[in-house]
Automatic annotation (TrEMBL):
InterPro entries: Acyl_CoA_acyltransferase, GNAT_dom. GO terms for molecular function: acyltransferase activity, transferring groups other than amino-acyl groups. This is GNAT family N-acetyltransferase. It holds the Pfam family Acetyltransf_1. Gene3D superfamilies: 3.40.630.30. Residues 45-115 form the N-acetyltransferase domain. It comes from the Bacteria.
Length: 241
């Protein structure tokens, strides 16, 4: 993997390092603002945490050729390197819809495969564009039970407004969709083709995304009704007491 790539004639996407530490506060502020606007959460991180990822060579940053910050993503490991997550994908509002999210995500995927070639690469998201990018990279939707059992992994969701949904369902359901790239599955697929061109992964994102959007709307209505019933029940309990 090349550490630095020039995308188009304007953008530079590279593995972050000490030279990028001054962007950390701006990145954190944009993560928080973006989460507020969407009503869901990128796990809140401190500038110090972002700096640590840069120094460790576990982050991807995009800038313009004049040094403006464009986007960012970092990688985390769980269960002693069994799982790798590409987390905190964020693009500055001025550069959205420019293809930079995909460029950053692809670079983070390459970095994950380089550092942890045997790890399962995972992600949880409510964003359809991110799901599309993941799908193009070979991720498949998975149940939450297939994701890390480590409490620290799920603690990263604590800053999300839907965290109570996750905890009430014992981490079985939420508004996010879990996704995974399993290198072992890819090896098995390749070996069973006997040298022929491997079949594409079975999840047709473009075909099924409209169904997913419909399911998300239904899911949100169901969860909202549950919230309302729980509030009425609690209010009744207080009055009785």
């Amino acid at each position: 993997m090349k550490n630095t790539e020039v995308v188009g004639s304007k953008f530079i996407v590279q593995t972050a390092n000490e030279n990028h530490l001054h962007y950390a506060e701006q990145i954190c502020a944009e993560m928080e603002e973006s989460a507020k606007k969407r009503g869901t959460g990128i796990a809140k991180r401190s500038p110090v945490y972002i700096m640590e990822k840069m120094v460790e060579g576990k982050a991807i940053i995009a800038t313009t050729d004049t040094g403006e910050w464009v986007g960012f993503c970092y990688i985390e490991t769980w269960e002693h390197g069994k799982f790798v997550a590409n987390s905190g994908l964020i693009v500055h509002p001025d550069f959205r819809n420019s293809g930079m999210a995909k460029a950053i995500k692809m670079k983070a995927f390459e970095l994950s495969r380089q550092k942890y070639p045997d790890a399962k690469i995972i992600g949880i998201t409510t964003s359809l564009p991110v799901m599309k990018i993941n799908s193009d990279l070979g991720y498949e939707p998975v149940t939450f039970s297939e994701l890390p059992a480590d409490d620290a992994f799920w603690k990263g969701c604590a800053s999300c407004v839907n965290y109570d949904v996750l905890t009430r369902t014992n981490r079985k359901h939420c508004l996010c969709t879990g996704m995974m790239y399993d290198p072992e599955d890819k090896k098995n697929t390749a070996s069973t083709t006997n040298g022929a061109e491997p079949e594409k992964h079975t999840w047709d994102f473009l075909k099924e995304s409209s169904l997913y959007e419909r399911w998300m709307r239904i899911k949100q209505r169901i969860l909202l009704r549950r919230e309302e019933r729980a509030k009425k029940k609690n209010a009744g309990a207080v009055l009785v007491h």
